[in-house]
Amino acid sequence: MTTLDNRALAAISEKFYAVFTAAAAAILAFVVAMDFKLAADQSFSTFILDPGGFPVGRDFLNTWMGGRSVFSSGPASWFDSDVYMAALRRVTGISDLAPMYWSYPPHLVFLIWPFGLLGFLPSYIVWCAVGIALYVWRRSRAASTESTGYFWWSRLLLP
User: Fold this and answer.
1) Alpha-carbon distance 133 to 143, whole Å?
2) What are the pLDDT digits (tens) for 68-126?
3) From CA 61, how far away is CA 24, in angstroms rounded?
4) H or E element at residue 91
5) CA 46-52-57 angle, 5° bins
6) pTM of the predicted model, to two decimals?
7) CA–CA separation, 39 vs 62, rounded Å?
8) How far apart are CA 61 and CA 116, in angstroms?
9) Number of folded domains in the chain?
10) Structural domain for 35, as ranges
11) Residue 123: which of 54, 39, 49, 67 has the closest Cα?
């Protein structure tokens, strides 16, 4: 292959990654929007349950609870699932909540404490927006450096 062919291939590759990144970001934004639509249809006055009996944003609920724990007694007692479920029931107001578990190491609170400063919905919106932004930033960075050979391993780690 000639140098001209390599440049053309690199340009096509960069365009492909740019389109793929935009499509992935659009899909993620759509999923988040539908998540909020489901919750908005049922009102935000209480936590909204998905068909499995879990609150919408269930994985983030654990993160948010961990952030809130920094401003109280900490998450140590939550390794007892009964204690954690009681804390979740108090916060959500849902008595028949599907079982959830606190399974994070205690030092995680140093990273998630800012989410405890906001209510659940604002924290969840920030969490989703930052996640999508980081994904788009990383993919665009990978696309711009792959043509020069840097971060070749990112193709193994990221779609």
Assistant:
1) 15
2) 888 888 888 888 889 989 988 888 888 888 888 888 888 888 898 898 888 888 888 88
3) 24
4) helix 81-92
5) 50
6) 0.61
7) 18
8) 11
9) 1
10) 3-157
11) 67
